[in-house]
Each structure stands twice: as structure tokens, then as C-alpha cells.
Amino acid sequence: MLAQIQSVAPSSPMPSFPEPNKRPTNAAIDGALIRRIADGDESALSELYDRYAGLLLALARRILGRQADAEDVLQEVFLQVWNQAVRYDTRRSAVSTWLVLITRSRSIDRLRSRQVMDRTLVNVQQENRGRNTSPEGIRSVLWEQRRRRLTAALADLPAEQRNVLELAFFQGMTQSEIANGTGIPLGTVKTRTLLAMKKLRRTLKEEIQDLL
Predict the structure, then answer these.
(1) Is residue 17, in this structure, part of any structural domain at all?
(2) Which of these, 66, 132, 141, 173, could form a disulfide with 177 (CB 3.0-4.6 Å)?
(3) Same domain, yes or no: 113 and 164
């Protein structure tokens, strides 16, 4: 009986069925984006921004307690990603972990810098006590000095990057409002902002901390 069964059994192997399509993992997506950013792909930076901006903004806001400071840190984080993507090894840690660590570090640095600024302002007020110098007057002088430095640095930027930053700095518009008001895609607004901030940092160096 066994011989009869073997004689009628098919000699060809059983057909194999392809595995269902697998969705790429977050790690694979993030790794691909980092490689594209390392190659200078600005759209990849915008995609990574869209994936993690909400998470990182919430973290920075929790540390700093101020929305404006948290938004500035977020810009700094993605500028660092743009500058360091070529050297980042995705085998060391997940991209999300890297982004969180950068955000935490920059938030703490900004918090310390803000505390130093506050102490400096207090010292100036104490030194000028009795000289009819109001805190509002001191802040106005400091802001005017920063505004002049920023205006000079903005003048050296490409027109499309300068326009985006002027709308943000001097008219207080968000990136979404800039996109809606100018008709420029939101991703392009984000990329121009990041690249412009990179140039400003190179021009202003340490002074940029006071401008943010």
C-alpha cells in the first residue's frame, strides 16, 4: 500500500506561496530618512520633522515651561540632525532615541542659559537702582541690540529664506500661517527655516542664543 501511495505522489515539490507584504518598521523608515538627509535631501528632513515634531515639542515644553522656548529648541534639534546625519550610525541607537536625547540636552542648555540671563538682568537692576532705570527700559535696550544684530544677519540670507524668517520673527507668524499666507508648501517653509537658522548660527555664533 505504501508503495502504491508513493507511486502516485507528485514528484515535484509543493508550491511555495509568497509571504504577505510586510510594512516597513519605524526603525527602517527612520534609518532611510537619515541616509537621505545625509545625502542632502531636504524633503527627508521635512518628513522626519513631521514624524517626531509633536513628541519632541512636548518634551521640550515640559522641561522649559514655555512654548516659545520649546519651539526654538525644536528648530535647533533638526538643525543638528541636518548637520550630523552623515556621521550618525543607526546601529548605535534608534533614531527616535537620538532625537529625544538631543532635545533633552538642548532644553537643559537653554534652561541654564535663561537662568543666567535672568540673574544678569537682576544684577543690572541692582547696579542701576536709584538711577531711574526701569526693568522695562533695560529689556528694551537689550532687545534693540539683538534686533539690530539679527537684521544685519538676515540681510545676508537668500531672499526666500530671509522672507520666511522675517514673517516668523517680526510678524509672529507660525510656520502653518506662513504656508497659508504665502502659498508655499508647509514642508518647504520648514526646510527654509531650518537652513536659514543654520546660516544665522554660523554668522552670529554665540549671540544666537540671545536672539532665540
Answers:
(1) no
(2) 173
(3) no
* Domain presence at residue 168: yes
Amino acid at 173: M
Stretches where the chain sits below pLDDT 70 are 1-22, 114-147, 150, 170, 203-212
Q: Could you report the per-residue pLDDT of 96-129, keeping only the tens digit for each? A: 999 999 999 989 888 887 665 555 455 545 555 5
Can you tell me the distance from the alpha carbon of 209 to that of 69, in angstroms, rounded to the nearest whole number? 11
Domain that holds residue 107: 27-131
Confirm whether 20 is domain-assigned: no
pTM beyond 0.85: the answer is no
Q: What is the dihedral of CA 169, 49, 71, 160, to 10 degrees?
A: -10
The answer to whether 194 and 161 are in contact (CB under 8 A) is no
